[in-house]
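Fig. S4 source data, part A: sequence.
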Amino acid sequence: MALASTFYLNTLHTHNNDTLSLRTTRYPGFASNSSLIGSKLLPRSSAVKSRIRPISASHEAFDVVVIGAGIIGLSIARQLLIESDLSVAVVDKAVPCSGATGAGQGYLWMVHKTPGSEKWDLNMRSYKLWNMLAESLQKQGLNPLEELGWKKTGSILVGRTHSETDMLKKRTKHLIEAGLKAEYLCSSDLFNKEPALLVDEDSGAAFLPDDCQLDAHRTVAYIEKANKNFTSKGRYAEFYNEPVKCLIRGGSNGEVEGVETTKKRLYSKKAIIVATGSWTGSVMHDLVRNWGMQLNIPIRPRKGHLLVLENFNSLPVNHGLMEAGYVDHQTAPSPPMVSGLERYDHGRTLSVSMTATVDAVGNILLGSSREFVGFSTDLDESIVNHIWKRAGDFFPTLKTLSLSDLSASRNVRVGLRPYMPDGKPVIGPVPGLSNLYLAAGHEGEGLALALGTAELVTDMVLGRPTKVDDGPFSVHRFC
């Protein structure tokens, strides 16, 4: 969807259906100049031993420290715990799902991915790993829907012009050649699958019947519970509501030895992994500025809104839906004009694309918007209205309804996607600081790419050959 899994949330609100959604109250976030990590150098620590070992009331030691408890950070911790005997600590300023992870639609769709692109192998690997996880739960007698919010909905990329349908025919062919089950839908086939859609003779779509979606909150709860199983073995610990102030660097090789939070120092013997989403660029800039290093990670916060309608039965949606223009909106740094594009407010560009899904408890999720407005997460009702209007262009039923009449059953999620100008996340060790790793910049694909990213980082930390080429995601491209 629009705000997939990687952006910063407002305050979470628990409803009677026991799912988490968002109110429009602003959540106090990290400052744009990053209070997460400072640039202060701390003295060299004493020798660090493996496993969790209390050094004092305010000092602990681990093999690996992960900064960031979003889906990327928690998945990396999970993979390290499963694939090795290392001890792992996860530290975060807030708590899981209070940041980017909980904001999006949770889709695991391949319909809008491009075979042969530099991200394709990572997309495919992560897609496979998510399916393997769902299958393993079934073999254990567990229900993936209950554990992960897992639904095999299929995904449909909708075109409404000749140029869009021509593109979708080619895309379908390429997806099939890449090994995915895909089908091109003519207008009548599209209408049969989604009767609520406005379909005319120029309409068509690419359809992937095996595409799935997750519920971010359920998925994070599952991963966190699995991680906590290692606590009794002395291999896992969480430090939430504990902002990291700075990194500890010392020794003749100048490696990073640990982190200092507002409450304690956490030392690391093997690796420190920074998975801090939109704030990673400012974090790393502040960190290395006084270290004589040139490192510019150009991650920018890309704000998005997502409209959630609870107990809304007026719009039957059978699959995950996305308009063809979403692909261009996702990759364009400053899109010129489009279907749902409108320039306003002193040249600020707003991109709005139709996406529609139904979550694990039956809520309708409508998206989505994209804009660069810094680190502001203030809700903008005019953008919500744009989303509603754009959805109405595809679903005529919505044009007969007033959004203001739905205020009692609607929520709006507002957050920041970690946008990278070249469209690729940054994953790997920081040159000159071999034990410091980055895993960020996934834009709206954090949930989709989480397991592939976790496997990639784990292989790097353990010194193993990677399953996919890590070259396209290297930190070296910014040095």
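Fig. S4 source data, part B ends here. The domain at 31-103+217-299+423-478 is CATH 3.50.50.60 (FAD/NAD(P)-binding domain).
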